[in-house]
Hints:
Rossmann fold
Amino acid sequence: MVPMSQERRVAVVTGGARGIGVEVCRQLSDAGLDVWCTARSLDDAEAVAGQLGVRAAALDVTDRASVEALAARLARVDVVVNDAAIDYDTDQRAVDADLDRVQRALSTNLLGAWRVAQAFAPHLRASGHGRLVNVSSAAGQISGMGSGAPGYRLSKLALNGLTQLLAGELRAAGVLVNAVCPGWVATDMGGAGGRPVTDGARSILWACLLPDDGPTGGFFRDGRPLPW
């Protein structure tokens, strides 16, 4: 196991080497946390971590062994951000979607976050102030579900449900579990025209730094509740 400072909280960010994950790592570090920037490629994680002055680790959320290996390696984790996600499949429709493609999205966007939550739950319980943040999307709101992007939409809808389940099961240990929509952010996945990455990441940071009497089991953007 890798020892960590006893004074500083420790955060693990999945999908930390691209898009909004990079800025989440930066803001968590600026807030005084020891940050692990993770990515499927260790080279990618190290490249970003070197620029930010944080730590790097390989983590493939679709691979149970990879997730469990990192959890076993770290002695302490107080904050987990499930940011890893793939395939904003706006070119698909539910009536004729490629279900193999949908299954790949679910494996990362839903089951990947679930694997990470399971592996790091003991760390978060031990923290006494654990925070689990699932990066979701308004695209997964059942109240506004439209057409298109079926794999992405349903993976985020299910992630919201998982958030509520985990919040109920971890509440007694003082772990706050919330879903956060960062909004339409100008990243490779989101495309040009979105809000600044710094603003979207700040929304996630808010959930990471909640006080012990903060909300759990909710869905938020910019610190304000969203309808499911």
